[in-house]
Amino acid sequence: MVRVRWSGEEKDDAQTLRVLESEGRAEEESPRVGCSGMRESKRIISLSTKETGAIMKIELAPSILAANFAQLASDAEQAIEGGGTLLHVDVMDGHFVPNITLGPPFVASLRKAVKVPLDCHLMIEDADFFVPEFADAGADWISVHQEACVHLDRTLHLIASHGCKPGVVLNPATPVEMLTEVLDLVHHVLVMSVNPGFGGQKFIPNSLNKIAALARLRAERKLDFRIEVDGGVDLETVGDVVKAGAELLVAGSAVFSHGDIRANASKLLETARAATLTRA
């Protein structure tokens, strides 16, 4: 059986597969044993941009803060079934941002409920103190704010030393140039497209310029960090976000706040896919 996988969402999509095969952008993946016990052969779609030649693997990271905590495991599972390949965990301390949210015990509980990577975004002042605690709780990715870390190089090395993928975050008013000395250390750069602290905010359009600037820097320096965006990502904005160069899409309200979670996640990925094909 041949299927097309769009960052975790797999579909029988023969027409799209034929187009991408003709352009040399479909790769065969080794056969695996599927849930039914039958061996399956898949095609992974590798999308490269004209501007940089970089491979874009679009992934959805549902933001668990927007889920219904009374049925957290169920909501998380539905988001994953809809195409989420990791879960984004927003950690706020009430000092760096004007809100208090989740801590290591929450991450430890979530770790027991899901198998996908946990992407912990630390919006806190003393990240160095808490990095070991989040790593021990089960975080896979840990990102810290450039604005909150006095010794950012040291903090990123600390994250890596605990076996987690290090990321750095930029607030809307912080220029990309503030990261030039650490881009070779990070697994991902998270662009905040809203001011951090609260969900449900509107996307800040200038974030697109920042995403594009990061994509250019990555190409010029031949680096491989991934570009993540968080804030106001929905069906209206995700196309522009992907075209600008983002590949890790954090979405909270667009996935969890209304209707069917599984369908919301799937539709968001489909829209991102369409934009990527237009861009490629």
Which secondary structure elements does this structure contain, and how are they paired or packed?
Elements lengths: L3 E3 L2 E3 L2 H9 L3 E8 L5 E7 L1 E2 L6 E2 L2 E4 L9 H10 L5 E6 L11 H10 L4 E6 L3 H11 L3 E5 L6 H10 L3 E6 L17 E5 L14 H14 L5 E5 L7 H7 L3 E4 L1 H4 L4 H19 L1
Parallel strand pairs: 1-4, 7-14, 8-9, 9-10, 10-11, 11-12, 12-13, 13-14
Antiparallel strand pairs: 1-2, 3-4, 5-6
Helix pairs in contact: 2-9, 3-4, 7-9
Helix tally? 9
Query: What is the H/E string?
Result: EEHEEEEEHEHEHEHEEHEHEHH
- Rg result: 18 Å
CATH architecture of the largest domain: Alpha-Beta Barrel
The strand order across the widest sheet is 7-14-13-12-11-10-9-8
Q: Kindly provide the name of the CATH class of the largest domain.
A: Alpha Beta
**Would you identify the regions where 5 or more consecutive residues have pLDDT less than 50?**
1-46, 49-53
Largest sheet: 8 strands, parallel
Helix share, percent? 25-40%
Shape: globular
CATH-derived topology of the largest domain: TIM Barrel
The assigned structural class equals alpha/beta
Query: CATH-wise, what's the superfamily of the largest domain?
Result: Aldolase class I
The CA-CA distance between the termini, in Å, is 26 Å
Mean of the pLDDT scores?
A: 84
Which band does the percent of strand residues land in? 15-25%
Tally of domains: 2
Number of strands: 14
